[in-house]
Design a protein that fits this description.
Blueprint (H helix, E strand, L loop, with lengths): L1 E5 H9 L13 E5 L5 E11 L2 E10 L2 E6 L2 E3 L1 E8 L1 E4 L2 E4 L2 E5 L2 E3 L2 E5 L3 E10 L1 H7 L9 H7 L8 E5 L2 H11 L5 H24 L10 H16 L7 H8 L3 H12 L3 H19 L4 H8 L4 H12 L3 H20 L1
Parallel strand pairs: 1-5
Antiparallel strand pairs: 2-3, 3-4, 4-13, 5-12, 6-11, 7-10, 7-13, 8-9, 8-12, 10-14
Helix pairs in contact: 4-5, 6-7, 6-8, 6-9, 7-8, 9-10, 9-12
């Protein structure tokens, strides 16, 4: 089952679950218990200093959620997925990926979190003025890349996504397992948050490295991974499970899959499901709901939106047009 929420309804749902027990660091930290109606776990928001906030998410979903978001102002956001899978419209990312969103206008869409799954995420929010303070070179100038990241409040935000580096993963491990408490913990978390910001800016500002040199055996394993996704599209394995089944680690699978096929594993899966749905609608034996379920879409409204974006018609209109075409062909042949 998929629970559909507006942005306002989602935040009101979280706000209604603020933990009763206030932690010792209450002066700079808030905790929300994840709503039991859809899962279990906790969300933490830690104010490190003016213009710098850290969010730690650790929860389990029992029902998928789809949050409809409007065009909205958006600040700088550095996000790291430790575990789980996320989606926004046609984009997909998950365990071991980063998501860097610049300041500006976030375009309307539907944020999806499949279920059941565990999600662990670290997000750093920065005010543009904070980055401006540290983004100047020796001559007081800012690079064009940083200017684009800070953005324009009237323009769509810049978005960069990809696989985390080893250095990012280690900094995240240290942040997640902070050995300190109280004010010292706040100082430690701030140092790690700034380290992650620096690592991610350095990584995304550089020209993309050449594609990985893949051994023939690795290429074969990556093709095997694609075959598994195609065969099990209605109920696919997680990225970690897929990597295990083909004998690669998840980082190698993610990089190699993009290099070989030009998209992520779950980006490919999304497009493949839509192509399969179109073929089933062409056959005309199933209704729209049955087609959506057959190819692995649990959210019918999201399926309709994705199908329309790819093919220009919603699935019901497409099915109607195919049946009319088939009927006309029968009439022509009988005449």
């Amino acid at each position: 089952m998929t629970i559909h929420l507006s942005q306002q309804a989602y935040w009101e749902l979280l706000a209604s679950e603020i933990a009763n027990q206030t932690p010792p660091s209450a002066a700079f930290e808030q905790r929300w218990e994840f709503p039991q109606a859809i899962g279990a776990g906790q969300l933490r928001e830690i104010s490190l200093r003016d213009g710098l906030t850290l969010e730690l998410s650790d929860y389990e979903l029992k029902d998928a959620i789809a949050i409809t978001l409007p065009d909205r102002p958006h600040g700088l956001e550095f996000s790291f997925c430790l575990e789980g899978e996320y989606g926004y419209n046609d984009d997909r990312w998950g365990t071991g990926d980063f998501s860097l969103c610049g300041a500006g206008v976030a375009l309307a869409g539907v944020a999806q979190q499949p279920a059941p799954q565990t999600l662990k995420n670290v997000t750093i929010h920065l005010e543009p003025a904070f980055l401006e303070t540290y983004g100047l070179d020796g001559e007081g100038q800012m690079s064009p890349w940083l200017k684009a990241l800070i953005g324009d409040e009237n323009q769509p935000q810049a978005i960069h996504r990809g696989a985390m580096t080893t250095a990012m993963a280690e900094a995240l491990r240290q942040l997640w397992q902070s050995p300190h408490g109280g004010g010292l913990q706040r100082l430690y978390l701030e140092s790690k948050a700034l380290e992650l910001v620096a690592l991610l800016i350095e990584h995304t500002a550089q020209p993309p490295p050449p594609g990985p040199i893949l051994k023939p055996d690795d290429v074969q394993r990556i093709h095997q991974a694609r075959a598994i996704l195609m065969a099990e599209a209605a109920d696919p394995p997680s990225l970690l499970e897929l990597a295990r089944r083909v004998g690669l680690n998840d980082y190698a699978l993610k990089r190699g899959f993009r290099h070989v096929f030009g998209t992520t594993a779950f980006g490919f899966l999304h497009q493949y499901r839509l192509d399969q749905a179109r073929q089933l609608l062409d056959q005309g034996d199933l209704n729209v709901s049955e087609v959506a379920r057959a190819v692995g879409f649990t959210d019918r409204s999201y399926f309709a939106t994705a199908f329309r974006k790819k093919f220009g018609l919603n699935p019901r209109a497409y099915l109607r047009s195919q049946r009319q075409l088939f009927s006309a062909q029968l009439t022509k042949n009988s005449g």
